[in-house]
Amino acid sequence: MTERIVVVGAALLDGGRLLAARRSAPPELAGRWELPGGKVEAGETPEAALVRELREELGIETEPVERIPGEWPLKPPYVLQVWTARIHSGSGDPKPLQDHDELRWLAPGEIWDVPWLDQDVPAVREAATRLDTGPR
């Protein structure tokens, strides 16, 4: 059995909205939307990978808040795990630095206005339940 590789996704929540990122590559994924994130490297915790990936992809400093229960299969051997995360104050606005060409903050009524990648749909559904809970 092959070792599974965890891909972390961030449900970035801000003011009751969720950040969606539109893929610019690879071609088969371009134009579809996802939760930003990436692969966990050897010796790295998923939380540390999430912070690193968001710094690399969006140029922001973040803090993982809670893991959304469950994991979702991607192309083998990858599995997706998602954390809610918040942007540190003073970090600035996220920008699509790599792999994405557009970002959009979605209010609860707008979550399904974008064509999400199929594998992100269950995670987005879970993340959306956390949108209307107000401040912690």
Automatic annotation (TrEMBL):
Record flagged with keyword Nucleus: no
E.C. number(s) listed in UniProt: 3.6.1.55
Keyword DNA damage: yes
Family annotation (SUPFAM superfamilies): Nudix (SSF55811)
Keywords: DNA damage, DNA repair, DNA replication, Hydrolase, Magnesium, Metal-binding, Mutator protein
PANTHER family, per the entry: 8-OXO-DGTP DIPHOSPHATASE, NUDIX HYDROLASE FAMILY PROTEIN
Protein name: 8-oxo-dGTP diphosphatase
Species in which this protein is naturally found: Streptomyces plumbiresistens
